[in-house]
Each structure stands twice: as structure tokens, then as C-alpha cells.
Amino acid sequence: MNIVITGAPGSGKGSRTEFIEKMFGIPTISTGNMLRSEVEKGSELGLQAKGIMDSGGLVSDDIIIGMLKVRAAEETNGFILDGVPRTLVQAEMMKDAGINIDKVVVVEVPDEVIMGRLSGRRVCSGCSEPYHIEDKQPKTPGICDTCGRELMTRKDDQPEVIKQRLKMYHEQTKPVIEFYKNEGVDVKYIDANRPFSEAEMAVREAFE
Ligand code: AMP
Prior knowledge:
alpha/beta
């Protein structure tokens, strides 16, 4: 099963994908994480992408889909796509490349809630595990529970950048949902403006 999980930045896609991974035993492919790892390595692609990512813009469709094709080809049992496709062009390019989607899960949260969530978000500088200064604190302050590295604030979680990323989501990514509906793909909505304890149940419902 190939699944697309979509929603505004900070809507909680990352934690929902963990439940879907467990349900189906398939991995998540996150283009954001792939790009951040290129930035960390200091590769040519990373250097190109860094400025765009720091300002809340979108990396070119060709780069993203080129990267995705290679990664998706490694998986034979399906995958969850997190953060891609982010534009209609990417959705079309994926279709042309034979990356077919069976299900779309849309994680919905009001913009003002997102602003609060993202400005309090911290991520592990090693494994990218997300935390929150109020809602998901690590056992030891500032340290990742999973790998022991230091937590940090992503540059693109600054308020002005968050606004830009939300604008991008509404203008560029939302039309992708209509694209898949028109393709006859099953689209399910999850209300993620609810206590985190209900998150797993909401994800299960989306697959009933
Ligand atoms: P994310 O972690 O998914 O929020 O991605 C972080 C940043 O990486 C985004 O703000 C974009 O600059 C870039 N990025 C990730 N995925 C894509 C994509 N599919 N298309 C264009 N840019 C992307």
C-alpha cells in the first residue's frame, strides 16, 4: 500500500505516520528529512536546498521527484510519503514515474493552533525525532530520548517562516488533495486538533 500523508507543516503528520508504519509495517519517506540530511552532509544538493528551506520556500520539483524516485524504488511493500507531493506538478510527475497512490490521509488543524505548535517544537539534531516544549517533553531536558543527542529548534520553525510555510501549504499543496480525489483515490481526513492520546484511534478510523 502506498500512502500519502498530507497536512500543514506542524499538523502532526510525523507522529501519525508512526502509527501507520506500525499498522502496515511500511516505512515513511519524508522529503524534508532527506533534504535535512543532505544539508547536514554538506552535499551540493544540501547547499542548494538550505537557503530555500530556511526561508520557508519550496525546493524545485525536479530535485524532489528525482530524489523520491530513487528512494521509492527501494521499497517493494509500499511506503508512506510525508511532505510529498507538495505541488500539483509533483503529483503529476509522480504519476508519470509510476508512483501510484492508494490512499491519502489529510491531517487537519487550524492555522492558529499550528503557529503555537511549531514555535514550541524542538527536534533531535541526530535522528530528527520531534518534541514539544509543553506537549511532548523529553525525559531529560534538551536531550533526545531515542538517541541521546541534543534537541534544537529548526530554522524554519521561526514565526515569520511558519507563516510563509502555511501560505505555501494553502496555495500549493491543498490542490494536491483534489488531484487525488479526481484520480479516484480514497481520501480520509483526520481532525488533529484533539488530545494526542486520541491520535492513534483517529488514525485507525481513517483505515477502517
Ligand atoms: P518538511 O519537513 O516536510 O516540512 O520540509 C522542510 C522543508 O523542505 C520545506 O519547507 C521545503 O523547503 C523543503 N521540502 C520538503 N519536501 C518538499 C517537497 N516535496 N517539495 C518542495 N520542497 C520540499
